[in-house]
Amino acid sequence: MTTTKSILKPLWSLFILLLLAIPQINAQTYNLDNGASKLTVSGTSSLHDWDLDAEQQKGQIILNSTDEMTIEKLTLQVTAESLTSGKGAMDKNTYKALDTKKHKSINFQLTEVKKMTASGSDNYKVDVVGNLTIAGVTKKQTISMDVQVAGNKVTLKGKKAFKMSDFGIDPPKALLGTITTGDEVTITFHSILNK
After folding, report:
1. What domain of life is recorded for the organism (predicted)?
2. 79 Cβ neighbours under 8 A, 6+ residues apart
């Protein structure tokens, strides 16, 4: 009798440990592939439309597929001075407007998944809410995106428009104020994250 008890006790402990570990086994972490990902900030000015491409970004998504697919964590960080237009003067005006000496990065941190709907095999339409921090000012933003999960890769695609003035940013001006930038900008992203 005591030998049965002594055998059952470690087996029972192992069973409990396995049960506790199941949620962690199903939670998968993916990190942003900077070289394969693209993020562009687009806007208008009194002279012409413009684009800034992010050359340095990092991020992470944690997906859990215990019962159905859920997003546990989503972060994105863009190095502010890696936003480039290919025009030195415009880039300088952008960095000045973003106060990049004090605020080195633009950050997004997920706070809530509002809606996640399957739209075919391993594809989802997702609405998330998160804190977007630009030039040291944080605002809650809702972002709609397409999420594709394929093997060891997650792809996020979407766009978000907002006003610079909402973040306390004065739209940049050039040539003594003769060229003015529109207040609204759009961030378009195609992010690749790998296991």
Report:
1. Bacteria
2. 54, 55, 56, 57, 104, 105
Name the pTM for this structure: 0.82
Q: Is residue 51 within 8 Å of 40, Cβ to Cβ?
A: yes
Q: What is the pLDDT of residue 180?
A: 78
Neighbours of 128 (CB within 10 A): 22
Q: Give CA 138 to chain center in angstroms.
A: 15
User: Could you give the CA distance from residue 36 to residue 57 in angstroms, rounded to a whole number?
Assistant: 11
Residue 23 pLDDT class (50, 70, 90 cuts): very low
What is the number of other CB atoms lying within 10 angstroms of the CB of residue 21?
10
**HEC secondary structure over 10-55:** HHHHHHHHHHHHHHHHHEEEEEECCCCCEEEEEECECCCCEEEEEC
Domains in the chain with CATH codes: 27-194 (2.40.128.110)
- Residues 66-106 pLDDT 10s: 778 899 999 999 999 999 998 888 899 899 999 999 999 99
**Distance (Å, rounded) from C-alpha 38 to C-alpha 56?**
10
Dist. CA 120–CA 97, nearest whole Å: 42
Q: Dihedral, CA atoms, 131, 128, 157, 63, nearest 10 degrees?
A: 100
- Confirm if 41 and 181 have CB atoms less than 8 A apart: no
